[in-house]
Design brief:
Keywords: Signal. It comes from Caballeronia grimmiae. Residues 1-29 form the signal peptide. InterPro entries: Bulb-type_lectin_dom (IPR001480), Bulb-type_lectin_dom_sf (IPR036426), GDSL_Rv0518-like (IPR053140), SGNH_hydro (IPR013830), SGNH_hydro_sf (IPR036514). Residues 417-524 form the Bulb-type lectin domain. The structure is a single chain. By secondary structure, this protein is of the alpha+beta class. The protein has a domain at 202-407: SGNH hydrolase (Rossmann fold, 3-Layer(aba) Sandwich). It contains 9 helices and 33 strands. The strands form 7 sheets. Strands 3, 5, 6, 7, 8, 11, 13 and 14 form an 8-stranded antiparallel sheet that branches. Strands 1, 4, 9, 10 and 16 form a 5-stranded antiparallel sheet that branches. A 5-stranded parallel sheet has the order 18-17-19-20-21, with helices on both faces. It is globular and about 80 Å long.
Length: 530
């Protein structure tokens, strides 16, 4: 079977339609309803398994953010025929293949224990009430009741032991009879995503690339990939951001492979833009494989590929952080001409006119002689002159600017008495006074908005919302209160044509459209002049 052809065959049907939804709320309604955010993922490609039959696969997932509930996604994207799975269990991992029995939960699919996944498709489980740990290990156990073809949809080089037992052992905490997969490839099979309900999550960042992103030379079973280390930095900084690894070893921008997946340009829409609550993407090392793949493209062709991804990300309201191409002098296919191409691409990425929303300068972080280094620093070289070791993985994660993922939107100070234009607002302790100074809109130390006159509050957002740390008149026409994780915890009614908000001299706080019509008010007018 020509597996690259299978990849091309399913490419068109694999590209889904991005959906977006807007929830309109009445005045004073809480709008921070929980939504799904990705905590873990593995990019789908083709594995080299011999097929499964009446066996249970127990796969270990290391989360980024936690949550109060979970859902699982399974894929048969590159399968040639339907695959049936079921009796799926989710539990906290104890050690090895063993789980904590008291945490075990059963996953269903539209209420059913088993589901058949058509060729070229994927399925999501129903919501599972499960306390997902932060930066913790969970086990997903899947019974495969009937014979499946070889070369399943999955992820090769997962760097995590996968355990297989005969029969249906999904609910067995000890996983008796289970052994680490004999092939030793540590692949993930069928499982591609774990999403969580986390009301405070600000979004997910997808790390998109090839073997460096996949963590190829990091130590197995240690979660030492640079995306894992980035997740640790984010959590350590109090930032509630999911990190999703969509690296595939061998992947490149332009050509399909079997284990290396669809071409980066072809899979970007699915593997990045369709992730749950994706807000950012870091585009990493695909272009390196193009340069060492035997038919190196021009710098212009690689620049055009980056521009295409930048345009796709921005069209989906996803911020894109571009990574410079890491050095690889010492690899057999390195030439001075290829090095010149790499340097030219990096010059484009470092230029502020590139269109990138940020730059992860991996070349600078790993190079041994400054910005123009053509080879790894010895301390970061795994030994093959191409992949960073564990210290190099940490160096990449440390080079990321956590400010890219800042939770709160920018808030400008009010530009006039009593008036807020879109983008202007208040931080805790700040006040917007009416032009006669009688009434004040204040964001108090308790985190609630209040209208105060003569030291007494005549209105407060505490009646219908949660406390926050910043209030902003948003571009959607709503006065919005945000918590420290960037989630809206209260908002006024939206208007399609945002004009301004006004703390009037009669004590009424009013939002006006661009046509000058009032669209929302606190209803606190005292009868005094406006």
């Amino acid at each position: 079977m020509n597996r690259p052809n299978r990849l091309r065959t399913v490419a068109a049907r694999a590209l889904g339609v991005l959906l977006s939804c807007a929830v309109s709320s009445p005045a004073f309604a809480q709008t921070s309803a929980p939504q799904w955010t990705g905590t873990w993922s593995a990019a789908p490609a083709v594995t080299s398994d011999p097929g499964f039959e009446n066996q249970t696969i127990r796969q270990i997932v290391h989360t980024s953010i936690g949550g109060t509930a979970a859902r699982l996604r399974f894929s048969n994207l590159f399968g040639a025929q339907p695959v049936t799975i079921g009796n799926v269990h989710l539990a906290q991992r104890a050690s090895g293949a063993q789980t904590v029995a008291a945490t075990d939960r059963v996953a269903t699919f539209n209420g059913q224990s088993y589901v058949t996944i058509p060729a070229g498709s994927s399925v999501s489980s129903d919501t599972i009430a499960f306390p997902v740990p932060t930066l913790g290990d969970i086990a997903v156990s899947v019974h495969v009741p009937s014979r499946t073809p070889p070369n399943s949809t999955g992820h090769v080089a997962g760097l995590q032991d996968v355990y297989i037992a005969p029969g249906d052992a999904s609910g067995d905490a000890s996983f008796a009879g289970g052994v680490a997969n004999a092939a030793g490839e540590r692949s993930y099979y069928f499982l591609t995503n774990v999403d969580v309900v986390n009301a405070g999550a600000t979004g997910a960042v997808v790390t998109f690339g090839a073997s460096i992103t996949d963590g190829l030379s990091s130590a197995p079973n240690t979660n030492g990939r640079w995306p894992n280390r980035l997740a640790g930095r984010l959590i350590g900084a109090g930032m509630n951001v999911g990190v999703l690894n969509q690296g595939i070893s061998g992947n490149n921008f332009f050509s399909d492979g079997a284990a290396s997946g669809q071409a980066g340009l072809a899979r970007f829409g699915r593997d990045v833009l369709q992730q749950a609550n994706v807000k950012w993407v870091i585009v990493s090392d695909d272009a390196v494989n193009n340069l060492i793949g035997g038919d190196p493209p021009t710098a212009q062709r690689l620049v055009d590929a980056f521009r295409e991804l930048i345009a796709q990300a921005h069209a989906a309201n996803v911020k894109i952080i571009c990574s410079t191409l890491t050095p690889f002098q010492g690899v057999s296919r390195w030439t001075p001409g290829i090095e010149n191409t790499r340097q030219a691409v990096n010059a484009f990425l470092r230029d502020k006119s590139s269109g990138c929303d940020g730059l992860l300068d991996q070349a600078l972080a790993l190079g041994g002689a400054g910005i123009g280094a053509s080879a790894f620093a010895a301390a970061f070289n795994s030994g093959d002159n191409l992949h960073p070791n564990d210290a190099g993985m940490q160096a990449i994660a440390d080079a990321a600017n956590l400010g890219w993922f800042a939770a709160l939107p920018a808030v400008r100070a009010p530009s006039g008495c009593g008036r807020l234009a879109p983008g202007e607002g208040l931080l805790v302790g700040q006040t917007l006074a009416s032009c006669d100074g009688r009434f004040s809109l204040t964001l108090g130390r308790d985190g609630y908005l209040a209208i105060v006159v003569n030291g007494a509050a005549i209105w407060s957002s505490s009646a219908a919302g949660e406390p926050g740390v910043a209030m902003r008149f948003a571009e959607d026409g709503a006065l919005s209160l945000y918590n420290a994780n960037g989630a809206r915890v209260w908002q006024s009614t939206k208007t399609d044509a945002a004009g301004y908000a006004y703390m009037q001299r009669d004590g009424n706080l009013v939002v006006y459209s661009t046509a000058g019509k009032p669209v929302w008010a606190t209803g606190t007018a005292t009868g005094a002049a406006q």
